[in-house]
Amino acid sequence: MKKISVIIITQNEEKNIRDCLESVKWADEIIVVDAKSSDGTVSICREFTDNIFEREWPGFAAQKQFALDQAKHFWVLSIDADERVTSELQQDIRKILVEEENQHDGYYIPRLSYFLGKKIKHSGWYPGYQLRLFKREKTRVSQSRVHEGFLVDGKIGYLLNNLLHFTHPSVEESLKRMNRYSSLEALDRFERKKKKKVRWYHFLLHPFSAFMRQFFVHQGYRDGIQGFILALISGTVKMALYMKLWELQRKR
């Protein structure tokens, strides 16, 4: 039976981290990389593991790559502090660990997210496959400020059971994340020069398109008022993104 390491990056996650760690305490190794939390995150983590690394925040990709570099075992599972491994998903993973000749080098896991306390089963969010289980020596982290992910050199399969994601517990938290992620994405796009010069009509067309796609094409209306708010926030993120990208281009 192969062994597995779990890697988690944290920063001021005392409200989430205990439940997260409880859901993976069956793992052979738990590694936490904490970005100098000012709350009780590290103290809680010490109840579950001694493999805690405290370091300054270098960005999502660099922090996750550092966490991956600390893993010792053949298989690695990466989760966030606001995610939970269900007992059903745990069984799926254990079946993989006992396979002597596994044909896959990584696995996508379906993620079921909660938004403002409601399971979101539409809106383009579900199944929301995440590449989170992989062979350590076959994997690296993509280098981007936002929407970073794991790149696996090999064949990738799919698991059936869900990873639970307790994201955006309040509108205030959603708006904070919107502001942070739109800034990071604007910098990524600006540096890679993937976008032409921003025009005034981009501030209207892209947000409207994002809302329509999420609420109607991806059937966000089936998620009720939460689906409507989610589509509005999606449009607002696009508007903020193009405003910030315009500002960067103007300063250049």
What keyword list fits this structure?
four-stranded mixed sheet; seven-stranded mixed sheet; Spore Coat Polysaccharide Biosynthesis Protein SpsA, Chain A; 252 residues; globular; 7 helices; 2 domains; 39% helix; alpha/beta
Secondary structure: elements and pairs:
Layout: E1 4-10, H1 17-22, E2 29-34, H2 41-45, E3 52-54, H3 60-70, E4 75-78, E5 83-85, H4 87-97, E6 106-109, E7 111-115, E8 118-120, E9 130-135, E10 139-141, E11 150-152, E12 156-158, E13 163-167, H5 171-192, H6 202-217, H7 224-251
Parallel strand pairs: 1-2, 1-4, 2-3, 6-12, 7-13
Antiparallel strand pairs: 4-9, 5-13, 6-9, 7-8, 10-11
Give an account of the 3D structure.
The protein folds into 2 domains: 164 residues, Spore Coat Polysaccharide Biosynthesis Protein SpsA, Chain A (Alpha-Beta Complex), CATH 3.90.550; 81 residues, no CATH class. It is globular and about 60 Å long. The mean pLDDT is 95. It is an alpha/beta fold. 39% of the residues lie in helices and 22% in strands. It starts with a strand and ends with a helix. Helix 5 runs parallel beside helix 7. The chain has a 7-stranded mixed beta sheet. It has a 4-stranded mixed beta sheet with strand order 5-13-7-8. The longest helix is centred in the last third of the chain and has 28 residues.
